[in-house]
Every structure is written in structure tokens, then in C-alpha cells.
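Researcher: Re-running this chain for the archive, since the previous output was lost when a drive failed. Same request as before.
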Amino acid sequence: MMNAQQPPSAVTLPRAEAPPAGRRRWWSASTAAKIALVPAAVITAVCFYAFVGWTVVISMTRSRLLPVYNFVGLDQYRRLFANERWWTAMENLAIHGTLFIVGCTLLGYVLALLLDRATRGESFFRTVFMLPLSMSFIVTGTIWQWLLNPTLGIQDAVRDLGWTEFVFNWIVRPDRAIYTLAIAGVWQQVGLCMALFLAGLRGIDPNIWKATRVDGIPTWRVYTDIITPMLRPVFFSVFVLLSAMVLKSFDLVVALTGGGPGFSSDLPARFVVDHILNRQELGLGAAGAFMMLCTIAAVISPYLYVELRSPRKEA
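Model: Regenerated C-alpha cells:
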């Protein structure tokens, strides 16, 4: 029985028993995080690595309409490298990829710089530049197919204004059709690059600007010599995202040019899909798909190695 003279503050409550040390060590935050990643790891292993391995196996067989495990070694790769259409698609990939990545990166960075310095209308312009991202590449390709059509698009509109000699018929020219893909692609994805760069700019320490104003450094020098090097991780992210988009470019070329005129604007993704679904050349298409993976790995791996090695050097 508690003494009536004892103040309430002196009452001691029983402490909850702590879990055993072994159990506490086993069920830690890091263990829970690892267990939560197991489903994602399994899905990645099955849906990516397993299917990449299966594609390599199929590329070494005579498979046509259906998989047939009759191995022929590297014959499908020899057929692929002897196919003129494949090399045309690879050349177009280099042209389209260079123009698309450089155009999106430069325009996105410039737009981000302008919005970062703007004080009025930022929300409106951000909405305008981000609006094309709400459309699929099929819709984008259809829109630009109308705009680039010589009989009812930009060329016809400019001629109606009085410039009757104006010519803008790239979409029907075999030597210019590939450039129309870059135009449509940049128009859609420049808003994404702008948003990424703008987020990076907003993460810059404001004290840097105060220090540069005290030192009298011009604004353009601050951006070129201080801000841009600090956004190196953002540039890397943009490069990786755009490279993946270039490699997977299928719906845009189908909707905009159909790979034509002829095969002048064909890309490797369309080459692979066409041979697998339309020409019943599963083995050849699998060989092309694996070479696409090797191409993107050859482009990204050196850049990825440099980016991951730089923090170690600094440390």
C-alpha cells in the first residue's frame, strides 16, 4: 500500500522490458529495407536480365515466326551486319541521337536559366514548356506530320502569307526526313530537361550569389564558371534519360515518317520490331535488339565510369 504522505511525483511506473539483444540486431532498419527491395530485385532479374539472356540465345538460332532452338552460332549477326537497312538505321540513330540530346540539353538549360532569372510569369511559362510532355510520342508524331506536310502545314501557311517561293518539305525528302524526328522529339522533351535544370538551379546555395555580387563577378561568369560545373550531376541524369529515349525511339518514327521515304528515316527499334512481327525473322530481330543494348552500353558506360569515379577522387 502506497503511503498517503508520498507525493504523486514519487510514484515509479514499471519499465517495459526491452527486446532481447539478438532480436533487436536481426530486425533493424537496414534489414527491413533489404527485405522491401526483394520484390523489385526479383522483378528486375526476371524482366530484364533473364529476357536479355533469352534474347541472346534466340539470336543464335534459326528462329523465324516462333522460337526454335536450332543453334547456328553467329550466322544471324553476320546477316545483320550484311543488311544495308541495318546500317542505315544505325547511321540515322547517330544523327537523331546527337541532335536530340544536344538540342534538348542546350535548349532546356537556356530556358531554365531564363526562368531562374525571371520574376514574373514563371508559372505560365513553365506550364507552356511542360505541356508537350502530357502527350505521347504517337500524338507528337501525328501533330508534326500535319505541320510538316507540304500541302497543308507550315510550307502552305507561309506561302499563303505571300512568300510563294518558301520551301519546307523535309518530311518527303530522303536526305532531310531524319531531321524532322529530331525537331519533333526536342519539341516534346525540352520541357523535361528544363524542369530538371531548374530544380538544380533552385538547389544552389543563395550565399554563392551574395559572394559573387560582393566580388563584382558578372552574372554570365557566375553561370559559366560556378553554377554550370555544380550542375554536373543534373547534366549526367539528362544525358542518361535522353539516351534511353533515343534508343527506344519507335512510336515517334512510326507516327511521323513511317521510316520513309523508303528507309531513309528508319531507326534500329523499328528495324527490330518490323523483322520480328512483320517479316517473321525472330532470330535476326533478336540479334538487332542485342546490338542495340551493346550500343547504348558502349555510349553510356564510359560516361558513367567517369561520373562515378570523380567523387572517389575528390574524397
